Amino acid sequence: MALYSQPHQFTPLLPSAAMLEPLLDKASDLVKAAATAGRPPIPLALQQLLRAMNSYYTNRIEGQHTRPAEIDQALRQDFSADRDLARRQHLAIAHMQAEAQLQATYATPQDYPALWTPDAPQHIHRALFQPLPQADRVSDDGLPFSPGEWRTRDVEVGQHVAPAHAAVPAFLAHWAQVYASARRGELTLVAIAASHHRLAWVHPFLDGNGRMARLHTHLALHALGYTGGLWSPLRGFARQHRRYYQLLQAADEPRRGDLDGRGNLSESALVAWIDFVLDTCIDQARFMAERLQMATMLDRIKACLAFEEHMKTGVRMEAAIPLHYLLQTGGDMERGAFKDLMGGLGERTAQTVLGALLSRELLTSDSARGRVRFGVPLHALRFYFPALWPEAEADG
């Protein structure tokens, strides 16, 4: 098979000036959508839920996902006795841990340039796969791989022949140089979208390249402050996974004649890919802005509590105000303060309600007497954030 060996063979890395204007307009729409999503405080339980959702969706693209309830069980260290399911549970937890760790590392615009070094894909790949048991670090064809280490053999991915393994460092150095030099603003968003394909095209690792590239895109948007920790393209990619793969594969193709740019690969296919990524991001930012409308959250909490009362779980409607307060602040409070905010229940009844809220995980705490936080159990999703994660609603 003919192997790519020179970095010019995956140009263009960005569209030409003639093709940029509509993409820059769409990137401007993304900036506005991200601003509309806002920056409300995010309770710890919601942060964990969103990470679990991102993990579920990125692994679903690879056909290696678990049910949301199975992720929830794994978070409690309750892994399946089934070897394959346990492996997928470990993958899910590893992605959640990697996302949390890497978002702290690439947290601000000052951290953003560090994502455009050849070390960054290695760092992300290592964070994703190093926590896995040694037996789980194997490719789909059963070959063991080392997290964060460039592949040492040549590969074909579908119809795509990836660059020669010895050329991977040179391709990644060129990838980093071009995208690091993109000017800030709308062009940066175009560059982030384009870089996702070109990183996957290089296929620098034996396995895990898709998850690594998607998490890199997520982290770049996060570092620049566009996501606010509220949304991610990962959900959107998975919910359109056929289109995602079609456009990725199309952008692998060689130039389609003299009217298709001046690089080795198709410029029009790269433009179509970038357009798809920007559309996906806009859709996810707008979707999360709708789901997290604080003006309607008190009514949603009350709907959840009304159901709990109907099911006779011990939860009472008086908990709505303190729960809403915890959600709005994203913080925690003393148990006594929470009981006081329920108002007029009496100490024994208030304590019973508090215990029921903890039992139903509508409240969480780190210890038997510790401060309490807003909880987002799977069974409350259909009330709190309807259609956010339909598969989790079904499990809940």
SSE arrangement:
Blueprint (H helix, E strand, L loop, with lengths): L16 H21 L6 H18 L6 H8 L7 H23 L13 H11 L26 E2 L2 E2 L6 H13 L5 H17 L6 H15 L9 H7 L1 H10 L16 H25 L5 H14 L9 H10 L2 E2 L1 H8 L4 H13 L3 E3 L6 E3 L6 H4 L5 H6 L1
Antiparallel strand pairs: 1-2, 3-5, 4-5
Helix pairs in contact: 1-7, 1-11, 2-4, 2-9, 3-4, 4-5, 5-8, 6-7, 7-8, 7-11, 9-10, 9-11, 10-11, 12-13, 13-14, 14-15
Main features:
2 domains; 56% helix; two-stranded antiparallel ribbon; mainly alpha; Arc Repressor Mutant, subunit A
End-to-end span in angstroms? Answer: 49 Å
Following the backbone from N to C, one meets helices and strands in this order, namely HHHHHEEHHHHHHHHEHHEEHH
| The CATH homologous superfamily of the largest domain | Fido-like domain
Strand segment count: 5
Q: If strands are numbered along the chain, what order do they take across the biggest sheet? A: 3-5-4
**Residues in helices, as a percent range:** 55-70%
Global mean pLDDT = 94
User: Structural class of the secondary elements?
Assistant: mainly alpha
**CATH architecture designation of the largest domain:** Orthogonal Bundle
Overall form: elongated
What are the segments in which pLDDT stays under 50 over at least 5 consecutive residues?
Answer: none
The major pleated sheet works out as: 3 strands, antiparallel
Quickly name the level 1 CATH class of the largest domain: Mainly Alpha
Task: Indicate how many domains the architecture comprises.
Answer: 2
In DSSP terms (H or I, runs of 4 or more residues), the helix count works out at 17
CATH third-level topology of the largest domain: Fic-like fold
Radius of gyration: 23 Å
Strand content: under 5%
